[in-house]
Amino acid sequence: MRAASLFATVGLLASTVLADLDPIVIKGSKFFYKTNGTEFFVQGIAYQQEAGGNGTTGASASGATTYVDPLADAARCQVDIPLMKKANTNVIRVYAVDPTKDHTTCMQLLQANGIYVFADLGNPGVSINRDTPAWNGPLLQRYEQVIDMFSTYTNVIGFFAGNEVTNSLNTTSASAFVRAAVRDSKAYIKSKNYRQMYVGYATSDDANVRENMANYFNCGDQSSAIDFWGYNIYSWCGDSSFTQSGYDQRVKEFSTYSVPSFFAEYGCNTVQPRKFTEVGTIFSSNMTGTFSGGIVYMYFQEANNYGLVDVSSGTASQLPDYGYLSSQMGKIAPTGVNSASYTATNSPTSCPAVATATWAAKASPLPPTPNTDLCSCMYNSLSCAVKSSVTTDNYDSLFGTVCGYGGGSVCAGIKTNPSTGTYGAYSMCNSTEMLSFAMDQYYKSQQNSASACSFNGAAAVKASVAAGSSCASLMSQAGPSGTGVVSSNPIGAAVGSGAAASGTGSAKGAATSITTPDHFIIGMLAYITVAGVAGASFILL
């Protein structure tokens, strides 16, 4: 029996290798199968127990920062994947995966069932937060690890760099940090010579920001623009219609969009059961010329009541919604074009104008690429630094104190201003490094007076380390006040946690940059410390 089992396993693995799915590629505003050029439409299901979908970012809707990796549970996948296939599914979206775990069985099962994957790059504890956004070393490291893990699977279409990070007029500045994440994720894929995998974004259906959002991520330098656009939309409730739901207006708005767009989430649940009458419209000729299908939210039944299947008892119990979805998906037959006969004619949009009331992020310049070598060099060069005994709970007040000196000039090297595209060279460093830099700037401005490196006992003079040639080059670009532009690109190199994070022991991880309007709000500098290892949680200070 053991021999038979072994041979069966070997046979399964061999057949899976032979059955690698044809990669999906992008041409213009459409997806295509790479080999035969047939247009590809997303017939998807969101496959994750609650972890950041349906309008949440960072922590899950319940506030938790832990998550269950759905593609690391082989037993669960063996039950769920055939059920999703039975519902005519060819795509799943996963919101949080653990790149340190083994995903082989689930990914092979997806391959065998003809199912592709879109994966979010963050997780509930390590992602770009809309209220205090940042793009830093631990975030980049997390994104790179997820890309690495998925790079060997041909059924991975691409990644979401963020999900509804900007969802209101007062969070538009956060989009600059997401666009920086798009830029660096795309650059990383290219630097590793991976096969073509794409990076996009999933937005909310908020009338106040949706047009500017779509334009912002599509405009300007295409090296930092999204490859595809995901639209989370819940406007079709019950027995609605193409016009009543507003789908007709969305088609009009995206008819000239230059990259593929699709519904990254859909499935309003205000009318129960969900009969998914929108499916026929989404995959009809009214929409397939503009949108490339959509992803139903969601597979697992949870407190939010969006589930298709209930697994709480240990088995997979199909809910009424599953039956309705299966029936509707079984009726669709979307027709498209062949890539050989398709000519892309749409062009990138114009960037939204920065205006106080409506949009607060320039598309260029963007936040700098995280460079932990630069941060380590800077920290080692300092003569005044925050003490390792000071907890991060005290950092907020310390930032407020030191950045109040000199009209905020000592914090110029860590300041960020998305509305003007101004970013300090050290704004992507961790909280200990940034705070120490600001303290050292003040210390030097006071001619190294011993009392200037006290901050009520929170800081102390330390021995600086002479910069080697590589450090000297980096810091020369940053300039003495940290306001220069560092052109050296660390993408493709190892991204660590920074010398200060490990050297001082006080920072539990990397902090976000201090995001301000045209001036510092002294004493009210909100920031987040992100754990320096993938999977650890945000600490809100």
From TrEMBL:
GO terms for molecular function: 1,3-beta-glucanosyltransferase activity. It is a lipid-anchor; GPI-anchor. Gene3D superfamilies: 1.20.58.1040, Glycosidases. The keyword Protease does not apply. Its EC number is 2.4.1.-. It is found in: Cell membrane. Residues 1-19 form the signal peptide. The chain crosses the membrane at residues 520-540. The keyword Membrane applies. Residues 382-473 form the X8 domain. InterPro entries: GH, Glucanosyltransferase, X8. GO terms for biological process: fungal-type cell wall (1->3)-beta-D-glucan biosynthetic process; fungal-type cell wall organization. Belongs to the glycosyl hydrolase 72 family. Splits internally a 1,3-beta-glucan molecule and transfers the newly generated reducing end (the donor) to the non-reducing end of another 1,3-beta-glucan molecule (the acceptor) forming a 1,3-beta linkage, resulting in the elongation of 1,3-beta-glucan chains in the cell wall. This is 1,3-beta-glucanosyltransferase. The lineage of its organism: Eukaryota, Fungi, Dikarya, Ascomycota, Pezizomycotina.
